[in-house]
Each structure stands twice: as C-alpha cells, then as structure tokens.
Amino acid sequence: MIEGILIGLTTALTLQNILMVMLGCFFGTIIGMLPGLGPMTAIALMIPITYGFDPATGLILMAGVYYGAVFGGSTSSILLNAPGVPGTVATSFDGYPMAQQGKAGKALAIAAWSSFAGGTLSAIYLLFMAPSLSKVSLSFRSPDYFALMILGLTAIAAFSSKGQFLKAMMMVVLGLMLASVGQDSLSDITRFTFNNMNLTDGISFVLVVMATFAMSEALTIILKRNDPTSAAKQVSLTELGSIKINQEERTKMYKTIPRSSVIGFLIGVLPGAGATIASFLAYGMERNIVNDEEKEKFGKGSVNGLSAPETANNAACSGSFVPMLTLGIPGSGTTAVMLGALLGFGVQPGPRLYMTNPEIFWSIIMSMYIGMVILLILNLPLIPYIARILAVPKNYLIPLILFFSITGIYVMSFNNFDIYLMIGIAVVATFLRLYDFPMPPLILAFVLGGLMEENLRRSLLLSNGSWEFLWDRALTACILLTTILIVIWHVYKTMFKKTKT
Amino acid sequence: MNINTTKVISLLFFIFSAFYLYTAYQIQVFAFDENAPFNARTFPIYLGYAGLFFSGLKLILPDPNTIKVQHKTLEYKKTVILIIIAIIYGATILKVGYFLTTSLFLFSSYYFLGERRWVLMFLLSFPFVASFMYLLHGVLDIYLRDPFLQSIGIMG
Known about the structure:
- The complex is a heterodimer of chains A (501) and B (156).
- Helix content of chain A is 75%, strand content 1%.
- With 501 residues, chain A is an all-alpha fold.
- Chain A has one domain (2-228, 246-500).
- Chain A has a two-stranded antiparallel sheet with strand order 1-2.
- The longest helix of chain B has 22 residues, at 5-26.
- The N and C termini of chain B lie far apart (63 Å).
- At the A-B interface, helix 8, helix 9, helix 18, helix 19 and helix 20 of A face helix 1, helix 2, helix 3, helix 4 and helix 6 of B.
C-alpha cells in the first residue's frame, strides 16, 4: 500500500494534476452552486475538456469537479434555500435559517470546514477499504457481477425515486434499451439501427448524459422560469457577516463530524444510495443524538444540524468511488458518468484496476486529499465573491449550457445526426422530468447495459441456458436476496405510508 | 374529464416497449446461433418484457402521488424557440463552421431569452467562442472543422 500511495502522490502532485484539481474544484463549486445544476451536469460539461488529457489527469479533473459541485450546492442551499444538488437539501434546513439571522458567513464557514473534514476522513477510509475490496472482488464471477448490477439498478431506483419506484424502474429499462442500440458486442449483428449508419456504433454515452442532464436541465430552467414555486427568497449576497467560528461551535462540530463521516461513507459505498440519503440520515441521526436543548434548535439554525449533512454528503462522495474503482460498477449516477468517461479513455475499472493502472487508482485517492485542502483554501476566503455568481442572469447561463453540451457532442463526432439525436433525447427527458421521472437510474442503466448483457451471456452459456446460476453460488444468491429485500422494504414503506395517510 | 398525464406516459411507454419487443424478435441472428442459450436478440427480448411489465403495473395500479404541472406558468414559447435555434445550429455547423454558427447561436439565444445589453451579448458570443476555440484547437489540440475560417485564411 505504501508503494501505491507513493505512486499516487507522484502522479497527483505533478504541476498539471494539481492545476486540474484546482480547476475542477473551482468550476465544480461554481456549477454546483447554480440551482438545478448538479455534479452530473458539471462532470458532463467537463468531459470534452478531458479528451486532451491522459486518463489519470482526466479523472482527477472530474473528481475535483465532483466534490467542488457538492460543496457549491451547499452555498446555494444556505444563501437561497435553493439546493444546487439533492445532496445538499438537508443543509438548507439549518443553513438557510442561520443565513436569515445574518450569520450567512458563519454558516458557509461551518459548511466549508465540515465538508473538508468529511471529505478528508472518508478519503482515509477509502484508502484502506478500496484495496481490500479489490482483492475480495477478484473472486467475483459473471453471475455475481450480473446480480450486483441488478442490485445496483434496483437500489438506485428505490432510493432516487422519491416514492415513485415504478417510474424509476421504467427509466432503468429505458436506459438499458438505449444501451442495446448498435452492434452486438459478440456477433456484430446490428440491433435497433433501422438501417441508419449513424447508429451502428450505438448511442454515445456522452450524448445521453449531455441530453438528459445538461441540456434538459437548461430547458427545464427556461420552462419553469415563471413558476412562482421555484422563485427563491434572496439573502443579501454582499453582506454575509463574519466567517469566524467560536469555541462552543467548534466543540459541537468536533463531536458531529466523526460520526457523520462514518455514516456518510458507508451510505456512499452502497449502490444507488449516495449523498442525498447520507445527508438526510446523518441529519436525522444527529437530531436523535443531541440533548433536548440542542434538539429544539434543529430547523432554526443549529450548528450540529448544518455540520452533520455537510460532512455526510462529502463523505458519501468518496464512498461512492469504492464500488466504481473496485468492482467497476458505479454506485451512483455521478460515478456512472465518470465510469463512462473512463471507458472512453480505454480504461476498464474493476478489481484489476489497481494492478493494471495503479497510477490512476492511487492518484484519484491521493488527489482527494489535495482537492479537499484546495476546496477549503478556495472556499473560505473567496466565498463572498464566488457567491455573487448566483446573481448571473439565466439569459446568459442557459445558452452557455446549451453551447457546452452541443460542443461536447460536436467535437466527438463532427456529425449533425448526433446533435439532432441529443436535442430529441433532451426534449423527451425534459418532458419526463416535469412528471418526476428520475434521470439518474436511466444513466446508470445506460452505462451498465453492455456489461450486464455480457455477464448474463457468460452466465447463461456456462449454465447451458439454465437460470440456476442465480442461486448456484452463495454469493450470487445473497446479492439477489438483498435486491429482493430492498424491493420488499420499498413496497412495505409505500404501503405503510398509504395506510398512515 | 381529468387525464392523468403519468398514466398517458406509462401507456406510451407500454406501446414503445411492445414495439421494442416486436423489433427485438425481428433481429436477424446467425443460423447456428438460433437455438443457442444466448444470442443477439435474447437480452433485448427480456428488456421488452421488462418494459411491458413495469409500464403495465404503473398503468394498472392507482397513482396516489399524482403530479400536477401548472402548464399556465410554463414558458413554452421561449423553450420551443431555443430548441429550434439549436436545430438550426446543428444543421449549419458542418457547412458554415464552428466559429460563426456557435457565435450566432449564442447571440440569438441571448436575444430570444430577452437580453438587450448588446455589448455584453457580443462579448459573450464572438470573442468568447474565439477564446474557447483557441483553448480546444490551439491548447488542447482538439480538431475543430471550420470552412468559414478556412475560406478567409484564418485557420489552416
């Protein structure tokens, strides 16, 4: 491991990579801060830029964008009560009341320190957990991978659907259907191309991400610009107050941060869960742990209530790298985008990544520490200035998002068809989003589609067409049992909620 | 009569899945692969049935969390205009070139979204695209085809 850490440090500490972490954190913070634009959009917009770099540098840039965007999201939660990303919704519960009391600077400082501590602690957990899990996952076979993918897709559908599990499952199937367009990987037979040569190689992953996130996000913002419910009440962006944290507040944070980082990391590792659930769970847990006097302050500007979700959502970001780096199966929509980008570089993440490409594996982990320090340095003194970006008029913001999306596709293919296809998918995605059909399950399914078919093919061929492979091995059966439990739990929760109402 | 749009979407998805399933059965496979445990049409067929199953369930089961969209507050006109501008942009980018079409796309989008600060609109279109083009083409070495700039001798 020491050797790996040294390899990682050597790669991550090159001038170019430090610059990439800084740029990633900076742009991530800015994009994540804009309400409606989350880490997936931020990373999608960065993909064309990464084409010019080697895989390690490209991934370091994207990782920087990821945690920058999560941190940026908390700024708009605190100042506008309009979370930039779902993972920072819980931040607004106590961050926004604090800002309304004239303590916006303090709230932003607590968020910055909590994010830093959560991110750094979870990077340490990742350092120890990822190599061990990689070794374990070497024993995984095709049926286990197939079952894991079913688990990942079911879990993301259950957790990201806000009570709309069937809608999320429909999006999963749609993502898999989109992934099936083009040549079959083994026989080269074309499927669903309708004799269109442009579809022979399948639909580009970047195209689907740009269409369903960046472009449809921009269209949704325009579509809803007159919606009175989306108008945010403004806290003054010029007078944020002091950013100093006193001794009493520090003591509260010292207790909150370690426990929230553990829960955030563990939830982040679980497929499909991610920063949103981590932050809500950490908030709920903290509320139950603190004394009655402190409990009363929750929702009215509590330091614990702000620190807990901020620590947990950053810890979950590092946690979500674990399944991607060790199993090659992304646990969240954002890491699915990163996995797609890695495949674009010709790198196959999985249990062998840390042996075949140690510089990528270790440099990502090492760059997380550097990224956290940079985020803190960047955010604490610059917050009053960065916060003014929230005042950028949408008249400029929207065309620029569309411009980056279309350019991203254009530089990949120099093809009008891809631009039309992207616009088409974006229009459909915008319409679906209006009716609460979640997009992260679609992206995860699209990324996993090829791998899933490949593993099902191997499993069925090895078992001579019998589906017994699903329960032949104890590991496969356990994974499938977990999937069934998630579905049962979700159905029970929905029925219980209905009975209560 | 109120029509639940989510149900309509589910119905459309059901029809789409049926069409997908029909097309999946039409996929031509090699003769020796026809009876193999797995061939090019196996996975799509499962997907087609999965699509029918989930959309069918959504259609049949009651929908207590009906989503009500306030269509009156939605800005359809500007959204459609933006989509049309994007389509025109896609249709002209190869023939005219990246610089001119992208700059005009940005300038016209700002205009149709209600912006009238001409200097800022200009700065955030033509010089902005030129700088971005320099970053991609000049610094990152990503090729950008531009017949317009080539015809006036700016680009090689």
